[in-house]
């Protein structure tokens, strides 16, 4: 720590103003509303009575420095404060602690004397602040080049008496608070609050949820093509074998017509070769090639006929069709296996829950939950947890969430597919304190993880 210095006033305090300044300081000290305000006056306003370079204030009860002039706050763990607290505590136990005197560095230990010269460029004057009984309350220390004269000591003794009287009043207020029964109400209130925070409560978390089919059957494109028509609308009821979509068949029809012509040509060539083989032995050797060519043409024609029938997509099961807007599908190219729509049984539904990772709690299969539908939030639907994903998956908003499945246990509600809401999941029992401060504690854990 560097040497504590402060620019002195340009002129010494004159005798004519000394008594007036003393009265002003006494009035300020006795009118303070807090101990911090009084300590500020001790450190900084004492300059009205005499000049000094730096001031320190040491509390005898705590044995620590509580302030320094020109500083808003001091670090109690700083090397200077640790050293000063030890030195001043030793001085407070000597006979000189009850009177104004200059601290003699030569009477300190060798190490303390060396550090004294590093920290202070002038003499350090001990000004005791005492109560009415003469007990030491605190000590004001002034760094000053000149020794105090008799007039300054007399003025300071009156001022220190005012400081001690004001300081003692705050100590009495503190003692009165503990003697008064009002503090007991605070203690009782704190005990009740601590007891409430220890009350066991079941953990719960809220997550977005949606009613989905229990066993969905995804209808996929059987061939590559372009959607020409959808014969059903979203949420329509269909039966097995009903046409739900048609693909554009023009290209397949052209390929089928070409295959038929190829088959007819290969058949004519084979018949002609069979007739000529009776008179020409060389044509008989080409019959096998022509027969294979005809068989290949017939296979191509049969394959294209089968592909053409697949341009009409039918429902394999009875149920309700689920897909996006009908107009978005018209003219859309599809590859083999692309999903088109879902056919589900409306009477077999389950609950799909997306639990954000930051809200995840300990959950078990079979634990209870409630669904609050957006369309009917006043009537929750009871369910139970049946599946928990082992890892999180990305959501539409770029976050990660655990996918959970729930089975409804309350059959008294209309659970239409596609309804959305929020699910309240219940976990293990914990204290009310952890229930309320779980998220702040998790954030604090991140900041405290070094």
Helicity, as a percent range: 25-40%
CATH architecture of the largest domain: 2-Layer Sandwich
Number of domains: 3
Straight-line N-to-C gap: 29 Å
What is the strand arrangement across the widest sheet? 6-15-19-17-16-20
Radius of gyration: 48 Å
The H/E string reads HHEEHEHEEHHEEEEEHHHEEEEEEEEEEH
Structural class: alpha+beta
Fourth-tier CATH superfamily name of the largest domain: GAF domain
Silhouette? elongated
Discrete helix count: 10
What would the CATH topology of the largest domain be? Beta-Lactamase
What does this structure look like?
The structure is a single chain. The protein is an alpha+beta fold. The chain has 3 domains: 157 residues, 2-Layer Sandwich (Beta-Lactamase), CATH 3.30.450; 123 residues, no CATH class; 92 residues, Beta Barrel (Elongation Factor Tu (Ef-tu), domain 3). It is built from 10 helices and 20 strands. The strands form 4 sheets. It has a 6-stranded antiparallel barrel with strand order 6-15-19-17-16-20. It has a 5-stranded antiparallel β-sheet with strand order 2-1-5-4-3, with helices on both faces. A hairpin with a 4-residue loop joins strand 1 and strand 2. The chain starts with 14 loop residues before the first helix and ends with a helix.
Brief account:
This protein has ten helices and 20 strands. The chain is an alpha+beta fold and 450 residues long.
